[in-house]
Amino acid sequence: MDYKKLGMEYLKEAQRLKEYLRPLRGQLKEIGGEDSVLLRRRISMLDEMHLELYHTGKYLLNQGGRL
Fold it and tell me: Which of 4, 17, 52, 54 makes a 20 to 30 Å CA pair with 46?
């Protein structure tokens, strides 16, 4: 198994998700009420996914360097 390649794929997906989140954060300034609450919940969930992808990618890269 190529940990470095897999780690880079995870990091690429993390970056893609981060770029997807940028406009969503901008929308928070334009909306209010219940829509704002729902969007914050969605952003929070996607933030967690981004962090999981990022940390898993870094871990895999680190493991690939040990082989």
Answer: 4
